[in-house]
Amino acid sequence: NCTHDHHHHVEEKYGMSSFVYRQKIPFHAERFLSYLNDEFPPSVYRSKGLFWMANRPDDAIYLSQAGGSIRIDPAGAWWSAIPKQEREMYEAYQMNKANIDAKWTQEWGDRVIEIVFIGQGIDKEQITKELNACLLNDSEISEWQAKHNS
Description:
Distance between the termini: 53 Å
Strand order of the largest sheet: 1-5-2-3-4
Number of helices: 6
Radius of gyration: 17 Å
Strand content: 25-35%
């Protein structure tokens, strides 16, 4: 496959690579925003994707970063934030129901963090460790669930 070989050639020649960070657990807003502002790795040239924060559980949020520019924009509501009977009325939900249901969890619904990182010489393990530190920890998850499931 020519495209596949070309991709590896670019990676080897320029040290470019990418990975997708995936999690179901929400980010702690202050820790994540502090990470974006103060600790974001300069080796990451581009990142984009959806995420959610514990203090805004109904909101899907879009991250778009290029170089030193980072944008965070609303991306609508998670399906799980909309009552089931209301969800059923949306054509987009009906068309994508199988895909949505396949990713659905009892705990978080369709809420997810999926952000792709592209850069030169990026350290996937280090970035993953730093992002994991921005997630809610076990006691914060317990508090959050007690508050939102009551």
